[in-house]
Write a structure and sequence with these properties.
Elements (H helix, E strand, L loop, with lengths): L2 H12 L3 H7 L36 H4 L2
Helix pairs in contact: 1-2
Length: 66
């Protein structure tokens, strides 16, 4: 599958334009995922903005998820 075909398939699946998919940088993996050791795993780096205190400012994400 070429990159153009891949972009078109992702665009069809998501409903976005091919230009948007190209801009977001989707690509085909050429090898399998790397298995991580348990010591390499970290908690997810996400924030639920609906639950975060809007008046709290933090430099690092870990400061927000205490």
């Amino acid at each position: 599958m070429s990159n153009s075909e891949f972009d078109a398939a992702v665009a069809a699946a998501t409903g976005d334009s091919v230009a948007t998919i190209r801009r977001r940088g989707f690509s085909i993996l050429t090898r399998g995922p790397v298995e991580l050791e348990p010591d390499d795993l970290r908690p997810p780096q996400i924030i639920d903005w609906d639950c975060a205190d809007a008046n709290q400012f933090a430099r690092f994400i870990d400061d927000l998820i205490d």
